[in-house]
Amino acid sequence: MSVSSRPGRAIVFLLVAAGCLLATISVPVIWLHQVVVNTDRYVATVAPLSDDPAIKDAVAAYISDELVRLTRIDELTENRFPDGVDLLSGTAADVLRDAIYEHVRDEMDSPEFGEIWLEANRRAHSAVTQVVLGRDGAGAAQEGEVALNLRQLLDRIRLRLISRGFFFLKDVSLNQEASAFTVLTLPKIATIQRAAAVLERAALWIPLLALACWGVAAAVCRKPRQTVLIAGLGTAAGMAFLLAGLALGRRAYLAALSQSDAVDVAAATSFFDIIINSFQAWAWGVLAGGLAAAAIAFLLKSLSHRG
After folding, report:
1. 221, 198, 220, 202: which is closest to 210 by C-alpha?
2. Looking at residue 247, what is its pLDDT?
3. Partner of 6 at 20 to 30 A CA spacing, among 12, 35, 282, 305?
4. Residue 141: per-residue pLDDT
């Protein structure tokens, strides 16, 4: 069948369109496989968050609240002040928390916090893959939450506070539950897991199929430069669609997050954004590549017409 015929041109167009669609899907596929599933790259992606003020404030507030809770200040004040327990315990807890918070927040600016943050995220990466891909049937995966184990940081700060005169913290016993700081929660996690699992399994063959579609279209078309032009513009349009969808998804995520008390909104936003920023960088890079390919094809086409 000659590609100069209407059916032939239609086939070439369908091949180019299929390649553009597969290329659009390939970006989240490769990003998921290379950034989210890969432990080292994931840790490198979230590493800058140790300097993020929202993260520092949220971690400091969480640790302060946990240390106050673990001191069981209500029981201490009840034993000492049987009358007016509610007022006195509330005041004592607030004063104690404020005093602890000042010291804890200073610790967030130390170089050691960055190291602990990296190690906590490295340990938590398995939970990330469980949540995103629905692996192992973990409770965290079913709830759609990612939590960092901050027991090392809690114990380090507890010892520092004891050395500064908070001797009552000697009796505080840290447990796994008290060390779990939730940094990410994803609504409708089952839908996300099904889509992510399919994309992760297709990490190799979808990009290859896109290249194959374009290769066949360029090989059989009498105007390969025009094929490259359309493929470049189609790929750029696909990336624009992804970026627009990501912006809408972020807005919906933050709206859902504002209704939840499970996480600190500012910290969860920073955590979500730094992961999504890496995806945006990939999409913008492919968009620029598509436009560059289209521009080169258009330039060569124009030069050939002049010649």
Report:
1. 202
2. 92
3. 305
4. 46
d(CA 173, CA 105): 21
How is the chain split among helix, strand and coil, in percent rounded to 5?
80, 5, 15
What parts of the chain have a pLDDT lower than 70? 1-6, 73-92, 133-144, 175-179, 186-194, 197, 199-200, 202-203, 262, 304-307
Alpha helices in 108-150 (DSSP H): 111-133, 139-143
- Cβ neighbours of residue 79 under 8 Å, at least 6 residues apart? none
Give the integer Cα–Cα distance in Å for 169 and 151.
15
pLDDT at 143: 58
Residue at token pair 């114990």:
155
* pLDDT for res 53: 92
Cα gap 184→262, rounded to integer Å: 9
Identify whether the C-beta of residue 49 lies closer than 8 Å to the C-beta of residue 227. no
Let me know: does 78 contact 89? Beta carbons within 8 Å.
Answer: yes
Q: How far apart are CA 285 and CA 290, in angstroms?
A: 9
Query: What is the 3-state secondary structure of 169-188?
Result: HHHCCCCCHHHEEEEEECCC
Residue with tokens 């008390």: 261
Query: What is the predicted pLDDT for the residue at 154?
Result: 86
Judge residue 135's burial from the number of C-beta atoms within 10 Å of its C-beta, 0-12 exposed, 13-18 middle, 19 or more buried.
Answer: middle
Q: Which residues pair with 147 in a beta bridge?
A: 182
pLDDT of residue 96: 77
Which residues are CB-contacts of 179 (< 8 A; sequence separation ≥ 6)?
149, 150, 151, 154
CA dist 276 and 255 (Å) reads 16
Is pTM beyond 0.90 here? no
Torsional sign, CA 253, 257, 262, 265: positive
Q: Which residues pair with 185 in a beta bridge?
A: 145
